[in-house]
Amino acid sequence: MIVGIDLGTTNSLVAVWRDEAPQLVPNVLGSVLTPSVVGLDDQGQVLVGQAARERLQTHPQLTAALFKRHMGSAQEIALGKRKFRPEELSALVLRSLKEDVERAFGEPVEEAVISVPAYFSDAQRKATRIAGELAGLKVEKLVNEPTAAALAYGVHQKDKETSFLVFDLGGGTFDVSILELFEGVMEVRASAGDNFLGGEDFDTALIQHFVSSQRQDKHFPDVNVPGMRNRLRCEAERVRHALGQQPTATFSLAQGGRQWELAISQDDLQHVSASLLERLRGPVERALRDARIRVADLNEVLLVGGTTRMPLIRKLATTLFGRFPAMHINPDEVVALGAAVQAALKQRAAALEEVVLTDVCPYTLGIETVEQFGRVLESGHYLPIIERNCVVPVSRVKTIQTLHDNQTHVLVKVFQGESRLVKDNIALGELSIPVPARPAGEVELDVRFTYDNNGILEAEVKVPASGEMHHLVIENNPGVLAPQEVRQRLAALAQLKVHPRDQMVNTTLVARLERLYQEHLGEVREMLGNMAGSFQQALASQDVECIAQMRESIAHRLDELERSPWQ
Ligand code: AMP
């Protein structure tokens, strides 16, 4: 059997073709969304999905998320004492999805069509195929995520030439793609985006609004402790989702017998998100410009990604494109459904051909810099020089200055990645540049990065004051595993013990109780502790019925707690 898989940054989904339609397959917890999170439990067994996600906060050293961002790089991610490549962690997610389908249909799954972002480079695509191989899946075909969305909407069944735009706003990223279907071939004409723009940013804006409304209250709790930040984030997301169904929602926070509340209307949300809504325009305009197409010439606009459920976003898209975008398929599910359509077409040897757009620089490349906050200088910041997704070859220059009086050298450290701080990015190399001793800020250095079609980065630093020029060439393709290494990794993965599937529901509940225990204080914490204790006792009794009953009742109370705090 061939399945279609959306291997997402936050969540992954699997779908099959049944009764002439694509159909999503739920996981062991009954959900079609499996968080793309992998961890090790206390016995060193692999946990995938919701249970691992619950443990992200309580066991950060044993849990990994967002590894899709590192696909195609040699970055290793530590889980306890073991290090994993991003394709190995992806393989564990894929293996879990494969098993869900095998359990549901009682048939082996041998092959998968996996979706990837349109801007994925050759190395990132290869890493995705290897992840499939490590999961025991043949991956002959990858499908671009926007193409998959188009397939789910049946765009490929139109017989005339079609141009359309896919507006994909997820939890943390925004991607715009313009595609053209011509004589049965789908071509990505342009792709643009923002790696730091998604639903979470709207949550941050709501949190800031709530916190600043309570500023006068001296009893208001410290919002910088980790548990509190998570609670505010969950509450902001709940409010944001609720505003899709009703005109107002209440943001509330309870602690130590006190309660803080703020009513939020659609207009308030619009107001606090104004700058984010504005930022959505840039990539849309860039993609249209790059594809040399006018809005009026687009045949369709498709909305993809959970955040496009927000009425604000739909309104913005309607205004931007002068028409109602297509959104009748659930935006979280559309890519997986489309991947299953591609899988079915492949089975009939009729798969849609794609022209793949890989001539982009897949990562942001930059250098370490120092930022000034008031009078404080803080090192370790990232100064992007070539932004992710630029069409290659590309050359960009940024000018930096000396920091101290009479300094004689400047160390230029080169990094790859998307994080604000260099410690979270990948170090590629460094150059020590001699400079003439002058007062701070008087000597300038022009740092030029050139990235060519072969993925080679050349860093060139010019010091106009001395007329000197320095070079560093970085061959940036350690991201693809050689066949020999794939075999080794496959053998290593086979040794890993996986957390027993039939205990997954209970493990997820225990992990959720632990997380909530950490997040709360006082009576609520005590109550959570009691629940955890009783549930452990029930588990020890091995009485299946008693366990199931208690699980239901605890899950129900936790749902209530997360929906509206008790105190
Ligand atoms: P994705 O990355 O496509 O899975 O999207 C995840 C994002 O979609 C998260 O930020 C969610 O808060 C957001 N999302 C999911 N459902 C809704 C909803 N009903 N209303 C608003 N945002 C939603």
From TrEMBL:
Q: What's the family?
A: Belongs to the heat shock protein 70 family.
Q: Supply the alphabetized keyword list.
A: ATP-binding, Nucleotide-binding
Q: Which PROSITE patterns match?
A: HSP70_1 (PS00297), HSP70_2 (PS00329), HSP70_3 (PS01036)
The keyword ATP-binding is annotated on this UniProt entry: yes
What is the protein name given in its UniProt record?
Molecular chaperone HscC
> Per UniProt, what is one Pfam family of this protein?
HSP70
Q: Which InterPro entries match?
A: ATPase_NBD, Heat_shock_70_CS, HscC_NBD, HSP70_peptide-bd_sf, Hsp_70_fam
Q: Which organism is it from?
A: Pseudomonas schmalbachii
Cite the PANTHER family for this sequence. Answer: HEAT SHOCK PROTEIN 70KDA
UniProt lineage: Bacteria, Pseudomonadati, Pseudomonadota, Gammaproteobacteria, Pseudomonadales
